[in-house]
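hey team, just a heads up i'm posting the complex here instead of the shared drive bc the drive is being weird again. everything in one block, sequence lines first with there labels, then the predicted structure for the whole assembly after. its two chains so it's a bit long, scroll down
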Amino acid sequence: MIATDNDGQPIWRFLLREFKPKGKILTPFNIISVPIIILGVILIGFRFWKGIGAITNLSQEIPWGLWIGFDVVTGVAFAGGAYVITFMVYILNMHKYHSIVRVTVLNGFLAYLFYAGALLLDLGRPWNVINPIIGNNFGVSSVLFLVAWHFLLYMIAQLIEFSPAIAEWLGARRAHKILSGMTLAAVIFGITLSMLHQSGLGALYLMAKEKIHPLWYSEFIPVMFFVSSIFAGLSMVIFEGSISHKVFSDQISTKSHQSQRGIIHGLAKICTGTLFAYFFLQMLVFIHGKHWDLINTPMGYWYLVEMIGFVLLPMMLFFYSYRTNSILLIRVAAILTMIGVVLNRLNVTIIGFRWDMPVRYVPSWMEIVVTLTVLFTEIWIFRWVINRMPVLRESPNWVNEENKSQTALADDHRRA
Amino acid sequence: MDLHRRDFFKVLGATGITLAVGKELNAAPKSKNEMEFHGVLYDSARCTGCRGCEYDCAEANNLPEPIPTKQIKGLRKTDEARRTVVNEFNTSKGKVYSKMQCMHCNEPACASACLTQAMSKTKDGPVIWRGDKCMGCRYCMVSCPFDMPKFEYHSPNPKIQKCTMCFDTRVQKGELPACVENCPNEALTFGSRRELIQEARRRIYEKPDLYFDQIYGEHEAGGTCWLYISPVPFSEIGMNTSIQKASYPELTKGFLYTVPSVFVLVPALLLGVQQATKKENSTTDIENE
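-- predicted structure starts here --
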């Protein structure tokens, strides 16, 4: 029984204890994030009272701004690490990467949860948000319909992938067994969903053909978004891993600390490969688009900055750094790649969107504060989970015992 | 047999669900060419810029009264408080007026973009907006090549404002749209799209010196229910001439068509790879190695 599993004490007392803060309260992160979150919550209240225009700089010509272009489109690209890592570990059976699965899936799940939540802030009539999910109002010809469904289904798939950690935290052994058994199906389902909605986020912009600068618009936006989500996600894994290993070093076993180097090296190789594929694709699209005349314009220079400075350069840096065995350079390359992905997503959704308008969209400070609020709240929840559930640290002993007994059973079964 | 029966059913179930979802997405924008749409022909050569249609539109749709002509400076656009505007242009043939409103595309980008069918193309032709379905995502605004849906940014219960060709209030009852009915110069003609194109051709043919030889809206964005004829090229009266001839929903069709195949093929492939790469002697629990 779940209610008495934690050494016989009632579950509510256990939960109550777990909800109390652990660790120091006056950390630099807390001191910065708490005022911003409070301000953000006030602004969100204001937005629901006075309308979206009260705190954003959106206009009739530019209906999607920072909250969609950065929070949703860019955030989801960075959450791509979860499907790549689960693919490597569960489908390709690369056990080397097993120790980072949980933290990556947790990161992905929270990213989706919060960015889909940010989407609600941007909806003018959020009370109708269930219409495409439940009702008779299926707009099946809409790419956004596909993206909305995929967000929902993928969040469920990721929750299932992560659920064994929750079961271990609660000490729910039977639930753990059932949930672990669902992992493979959730992973397969999740990878398929990810391929489609990562590209779907790009496909959203296909109908805005004349509105996006031709250097960023092509019918291949969906493919570009999908390929770039691979190295965006992995760079995020490298970046987040470096921070987690410092901040949560007490959680991590010496074994994991040692294997981290190997993991980062492997990821750097994959990043090099996918960055090369992406760069090659971009060049093909550029040459076929016959946009040579546009290169010698301000937007053209900006395009070159993105392609050379934040695709080609990090690719070479990744290559060089895994050849020379330098973790530091890999981290630098990961950060450059991440900047490149942010640039690319913003170029499609904001900077290159209506680039010819006399009045350009620049997000208001209030939009930025709300974005930071979403981000900081996510980090708070992330930290809360890491400090309680076996995400970075080892699973409790009973999990290993259970596995051993199952292996023995299966062996008996096979021999019989 | 490495794949346990239960695992097999789980994967089968997941594939089944994906198939069911995948199939629905297959319903891509339908071509509705076979139906007879109604529309309006706007003859810019007949329009005297009296702006009567602006006032009639505001009255018919409970919008604030338009500003007097004296206060107008420069070009105006439609917005959340006015569904139509008439602008004055200094062209190669002198002053020419042009009325702006939703074009009511044959295959509207906004309706295909809408994930709740709040924007919808009626079988009579008008493209309408339904507040009980709309969630205010503004994807219609991103998609519309004419930038016609307008959003009430300063309302906690915002609506999308755009011309509905007076579908609910008048056209459905057999009446003419407010602007058409009251136009003193007969610059606006309501009728079936086919008849309007014939009428437009007739006018251009009979007075080739007066008209520029093109019907704007005949092919733009796959054809629109509002049709324009004008004495000058349409770029001179502020019309967007970079609009593509094919319909806009065509642009996402290719992507949406790949969805069902991905949903069928990828899970099968993934399961195959998973089975092929797993070690012989570790058949059990993949969650905890």
